[in-house]
Amino acid sequence: MKVAITGKGGVGKTTLAAALALQLAERGWQVTAVDADPDANLGAALGFPPELVRDIVPLGAMRELVAERTGAQPGSMGGYFKLNPLVEDLPEKLGVVHRGVRLLVMGGLKKGGTGCICPENAVLRALTSHLVLRAHEAVILDMEAGIEHMTRGTGRGVDAFVVVVEPGGRSVGTAETIRDLAADLGIEKVWAVGSKVRGEEDREFLTQAMPWAEFLGMVPYDPAAMEADRERRALVDLPGPAQAAYAEILERLLSLQGKG
């Protein structure tokens, strides 16, 4: 199963990505969780010990590796470099493993001028494509918030996009844009997950505002999310209304993917 989790910033996509990765690992899947968000928080959401996460060097910061694989120095623009560098050997060499989940951190490439093609981005895209297209395992990508990653094609080749959306107009608008851009990338499966849902009124708002969407489930607002964040624990480990919702979402996702 190869799924990218996306949505507007702050809607809970990282928490969902962590919950799916941990639940799959508990079922015996070989799981690679990819933190493709420059504001890297997936390790904390997975409950990884801080010292373990600190040991991870983001791929975007590996200057020698980027130069070796692309033939160009990181940060350079123009000139010639390999757009499809060799990356097949990297997943086992990078990242750390905890609770059966291998965590890879892509690192941020925030630069002036969106859409810039640079050597680092070439490596990130190639590695993402390798993981998504070739690895025989569950790959959960926690994508960059918003739509910038869509215009770079970072998630090209995934089985599906899961758009996390909270009851609000801006979040719904982002979800619609992601749906349209996913179609441009040839990704036909775009499912939705409602987040921070406080009751039936929120449910009705989302379903009526997004009649095109097939919802995997609705995650209720859970005060335990703040506790999990403070204690650097995975929300799925804490008792609360969200825990059951994540389990139901995974069951629905596996069923739709024909892996239930």
What does this 3D model show about the protein?
There is one protein chain. The chain has a single domain, classed as P-loop containing nucleotide triphosphate hydrolases (Rossmann fold), CATH 3.40.50. It is built from ten helices and eight strands. The protein has helices spanning 13-26, 42-45, 50-54, 63-70, 119-134, 148-152, 169-184, 200-209, 224-231, 241-256, and strands spanning 2-7, 31-35, 96-98, 101-105, 138-142, 160-165, 190-197, 214-220. The protein starts with a strand and ends with a helix.
From the spread of the alpha carbons, the general shape counts as globular
Tell me how many strands there are: 8
- Enumerate the spans where pLDDT stays under 50 for 5 or more consecutive residues: 109-117
CATH homolog superfamily: P-loop containing nucleotide triphosphate hydrolases
CATH architecture classification: 3-Layer(aba) Sandwich
Content-based structural category: alpha/beta
Q: Could you tell me how far the N terminus lies from the C terminus, measured between alpha carbons in angstroms?
A: 11 Å
What is the number of domains?
A: 1
Main beta sheet: 8 strands, mixed
Instruction: Provide the helix percentage.
Output: 25-40%
| CATH hierarchy, class | Alpha Beta
Tally of separate helices: 10
Give the mean pLDDT.
Answer: 80
Order of helices and strands: EHEHHHEEHEHEHEHEHH
CATH topology: Rossmann fold
Fraction of residues in β-strands: 15-25%
What spatial order of strands do you see in the largest sheet? 3-4-2-5-1-6-7-8
Gyration radius, in Å:
18 Å
